[in-house]
Amino acid sequence: MTQATVITDDMRAAIGRESDPVTYEVDNTGCRQFARAVGYTNPVFYDETYASTKGHRGIVAPPGFLGHPITIPSQQPRAPGGFGLDIPFKRVLNGGTDIEYFDDVCAGDILTATTKLADLSEREGRVGPMLILSTETVYKNQAGQTVAIMRGTTIRY
Amino acid sequence: MPQLYFEDIKQGQDITTLVENCNSQRLVFWAAGSGDYYQIHYDKDFAQGTGLPERIVHGALKHALLGRMLHEWIGEKGRVKQLACQYRGMDMIDKDVICKGVVTGTKSENGQNLVELDIWTEDPAGNKTTPGSAVVSLPSRS
User: Fold this and answer.
1) Which residue of B has its CA nearest to A157?
2) The complex's ipTM?
3) Domains of chain B, earliest start first
4) What are A16-43's pLDDT values in tens digits?
5) Do B1 and A42 touch (CB under 8 A)?
6) Is A153 close to B35, i.e. CB distance below 8 A?
7) Which residue in A has a C-alpha nearest to residue B29's C-alpha?
8) CB neighbour list of residue B10: distance below 8 Å, 6 or more residues apart
């Protein structure tokens, strides 16, 4: 590539670095609120008793829902897609989501997620020069089992 | 909710289409449900201030709608094993998001009956804005 790169040595060094663990709570209200947002009508996403008659441990987390992070205002939230990198672009777009599931997730589960920067690349897009961050987040439940891996793409431009 | 079985699946088969209008209430529901409160999705002035023509549908909402399409097709005993999509084109507020899919293959692996699919969303003009792929597992009749 003859073009100037915005990827510095510091940024390259961050590839593979793992974040601190983040705790996500999967609770009844969270599952219901997510299910309602997506327009589900199946009671397995709303009704604990019905879910148990279908053999579930609790209200089922709909596909895409892996809980809400515990938010504490005095603790600085992670910059979205930033990884503490000095990125010269201000705007953010979600480039894609790939979630692989290894086990069911139900209300009552507490998930622990660690994210690592899997790759950095750059490209000239319709919106100008873009930096593409590929991330990989592993979600483990309270029993220590990996229930899901999310591979995400964040575009900065 | 009817149950789909592995033996019912043929390569090239279309799956049941899901259409959802993404109006402002849907996007606010999603902001609350997902915890994504970025204002480009519900504040018109803010969205236009970043150079967008209008408020846009959250990418992750389209991912979740594709998940709902799969869930409603596979039935109670089916499971979504993998769901991947790329947000190639923007979908604007108040428009229908049309979720579609087609079976690309089947395989049995580790005692699971798996179906591979191409999935995507279309806008009302027929542009594929969110191409992707998925794997679901289904129960067997036997």
Assistant:
1) B50
2) 0.95
3) 6-138 (3.10.129.10)
4) 988 889 999 999 999 999 999 999 999 9
5) yes
6) no
7) A37
8) B103
Residue A125: the pLDDT is 81
Angle (CA) B92-B94-B99 rounded to 5° is 75
A125 interface with B at CB cutoff 8 Å: no
CA B58 and chain centroid, separation:
12
Q: Does B59 touch chain A (CB under 8 A)?
A: yes
Ordered strands of the B128-138 beta sheet: A68-69, A22-25, A110-125, A128-140, A146-156, A92-101, B79-86, B128-138, B112-122, B96-109, B18-21
Min Cα distance B108 → chain A (Å) is: 16
Determine whether the interchain pair B84/A36 forms a contact, defined as Cβ–Cβ distance below 8 Å. no
Domain architecture of chain A: domains with CATH: 1-25+79-157 (3.10.129.10), 27-65 (no CATH)
Considering only CB atoms, B82 lies closest to which of A36, A42, A99, namely A99
pLDDT (tens, 9 = 90+) of chain B, 142 residues, equals: 789 999 999 999 999 999 999 999 999 999 999 999 999 999 999 999 988 999 999 999 999 999 999 999 999 999 999 999 999 999 999 999 999 999 999 999 999 999 999 999 999 999 999 999 999 999 999 8
pTM: 0.94
Q: How close, in Å, is residue A49 to chain B by CA atoms?
A: 15
